[in-house]
Fold this sequence. Notes:
Radius of gyration: 12 Å
Largest sheet: 2 strands, antiparallel
Order of helices and strands: EEHHH
Helix content: 40-55%
Strand content: 5-15%
Distance between the termini: 15 Å
Strand order of the largest sheet: 1-2
Shape: globular
Amino acid sequence: PFGYALQDDGTHLDTDADEQEAIEIIAELRRRGHILRRICSELEKRGVKTKNGKAKWHPQVVSRIVKRAA
């Protein structure tokens, strides 16, 4: 899941600091009332990468992160 990385043993998760920071950014922007597309734009502007290392964010991905963090 976004915010975590699989340990070398293949069964346990560690937190991923960069992704955890992205989750905090997403949560803060959502609290401020930003819509999903605006959050995507802000993440792209800040250079935050997706789980797959891509620069382009999609509203559906942000929505799943918001729902999981709630």
